[in-house]
Amino acid sequence: PLTTVLCLFFFWPLSRPAVVFGLPCTLATEACLQACPAACTCSSVERGCSVHCDRAGLLRVPTEFPCEAASIDLDRNGLRILGERAFGTLPSLRRLSLRHNNLSFITPGAFKGLPRLAELRLAHNGELRYLHARTFAALGRLRRLDLAACRLFSVPERLLAELPALRELTAFDNLFRRVPAALRGLANLTHAHLERSRIEAVASSSLRGLRRLRSLSLQANRVRAVHAGAFGDCGALEHLLLNDNLLAALPAAAFRGLRRLRTLNLGGNELGHVLRAWFSDLEELELLYLDRNSITFVEEGAFQNLSGLLALHLNGNRLTMLSWAAFQPGFFLGRLYLFRNPWHCDCHLEWLRDWMEGSGRVADVACASPGSVAGLDLSRVVFERSSDGLCVDPEELNFTTSRPGPSPEPVATTVSRFSSLLSKLLAPRAPVEEIANSTWELVNISLFDSLPSHGVVFLGCKVTFLFASCLLLTLAQYVVFSLQRD
């Protein structure tokens, strides 16, 4: 096409997109507007021409674009197929967005003629499902690739091999069952977003060669296993999100070598305990999320190397106690979140109560037991001292101080047992029909007014019998109390 020829003539070399062989900027702006596709709007920007064709009802890609185009937006149209060289030759194009279309097939070589393309967005094309291994051929300068919500089942192993400059891959909301093998060896990749797919495991070879990876998101998948050494090549990793998966256990060396890690999110899994070996190399860790698990035990020294930790989330677990030895030695912590745990507030948590009072960085530690302090916040629990200086648990303290002297509990117990036995012996045996309908008789007690005279006599006998039983019970209680005084 004529515009392609003009682009090749005017924009070679590529280092001067705004001024070409002395062409004034005003002429470049006019050229941008004159070559704008009919259904689109164009505007001149600092680095070239910006073409906006979003929500234009397009069913196919326009045949011509301004050769000065630096950005093209084709979001929310009805595009279904991209043929070979779908956009012609656009030597200045750096950004291309095709989100929210109906793309089902991309011809290999569709993006040829775009030598400077740095950002490609294909997100939310739910019918795409499959990509050919040569789809991104000739995009050697691509830095950002967005494949989110395309419902891809897999990514061909060589698909990304053509993208040596790739820095950021966004591929969440797909149907992957494993970490795409196409990621291996991407030496310049720094960010990988793989959340909300169906990934079941992180194998020891899944992330091989990702030596510059700084952020990895695997949250909201179905990860049940993380193999030992899975992050061995990711020494530059700073943020690792594994929350909301199905992890019930982790190998001791799961995070070995991640000495630059600053954020680790393991919340929303099925972990039952916390091991010291997990965090032995994480000296730079600042945020640790272990919330919404089933943790009942934290090993001593589990957090001892995390000297720079700003926040630790242990809320929403099954912890009844937490030892200070888990943080020793010389531990400093910004915030500690412990709410929604069934805490047993005895002397083992006295250190935590003192720390809550001194630092003010812990709150909402509700006691579930012992019964004397159940429902109280730990900050309100009083730990007294015995004569030898030892801490006295709230349960023992409340028992001894609230009931001075000999306890009358055995007397009450004896009387109640004797009364219960006497009541059983004296209780008349009613027929099955009378027992079954006792509730009905109580509800409809007004019907006694219509009973015949022999019913009244029967009721009088019953009252007399009950009165005699009460006298016997009173006499028995008097005898028991007399024996206790003696």
From TrEMBL:
SMART domains: LRR_TYP, LRRCT. Keywords: Leucine-rich repeat, Membrane, Repeat, Signal, Transmembrane, Transmembrane helix. Residues 341-392 form the LRRCT domain. The chain crosses the membrane at residues 456-481. InterPro entries: Cys-rich_flank_reg_C (IPR000483), Leu-rich_rpt (IPR001611), Leu-rich_rpt_typical-subtyp (IPR003591), LRR_dom_sf (IPR032675), LRR_TM_domain-containing (IPR050541). Residues 1-22 form the signal peptide. This is Nyctalopin.
